[in-house]
Amino acid sequence: MISVARLSQELKLKSGVERAANSQRFFKTGPGEYGEGDIFIGVSVPDQRKVAKNYYDLPLVEINTLLQSKIHEERLTAVIILVEQFKKADIPAQKKIYDFYMAHTDRMNNWDIIDSSAPYIVSVYLWNSFAQKESPSTETVRVLTRLAKSQSVWDRRIAIISTAYFIRQGDINETFIIAEILLQDTHDLVQKAVGWMLREVGNSVGIEIEEQFLKQHYKIMPRTMLRYAIEKFDEPKRKAYLAGII
């Protein structure tokens, strides 16, 4: 019989002290850092996915229990399960999972948890439900703008990362709208995410489209955001952007 207690035990059996210590440092869990207080037991992501395979039928009420855990790997495993449930769900069930996710964004409290879930739940749901009707979708922009204007760094990261599926469909309007809201965000995890999504616009739709946005805004972008956005440009062009001479 599947249960949260059994899942937790399976994760502990795959844990390691050295990996846990390395993860504590890598995910900045010290005082004043973005992951302050997060607890790692040292389970690799591939091992978490192996464990999760046995729990794809876990009810949302038990997934909620996992999301409330102080243990990082339990929360990440919870969203891995959610993503798999979403992929297999019909439209009403997908809405239920989306609503559940949006009601628990406070528990999507590290960048890997967000990056493993928002592009596959929030992004896909919004695209299927609204974006195909109009571009940019009024409802999609409303949802993502609310997140982008949140005081929570995690909500703001969800906002921009949730445009990933749109980009893959060739729709970059929502990405540019949210990127502009976050253009001078002071948190490096948001800066990196915005730069990443702008780079994906270049990769998926064309560098010339990405540059239409960059040429308007690059001079006021944080350096981190700009570096991520122009990572795939040729060296002379990268240097020109960094020197402010485009």
Characterise this structure:
By secondary structure, this protein is mainly α. It folds into two domains: 1-93, Leucine-rich Repeat Variant, CATH 1.25.10.90; 118-246, Leucine-rich Repeat Variant (Alpha Horseshoe), CATH 1.25.10.90. It has 16 helices and no strands. The protein has helices at residues 4-13, 17-26, 45-52, 60-67, 72-88, 91-102, 111-115, 122-131, 138-148, 153-161, 164-168, 173-181, 188-204, 207-217, 223-229, 235-243. α3 (45-52) packs across α5 and α5 runs antiparallel to α6. The radius of gyration is 19 Å and the shape is globular.
Q: What are the secondary-structure elements, in order, as H or E?
A: HHHHHHHHHHHHHHHH
Work out the count of structural domains: 2
Low-pLDDT residue intervals, each spanning 5 or more residues? none
Secondary structural class: mainly alpha
What is the highest CATH level, the class of the largest domain? Mainly Alpha
Q: Looking at CATH, which topology of the largest domain would you report?
A: Leucine-rich Repeat Variant
What is the first-to-last residue Cα distance? Answer: 61 Å
Average pLDDT figure: 95
Tally the beta strands.
Answer: 0
Measured as a percent range, the helix fraction is 55-70%
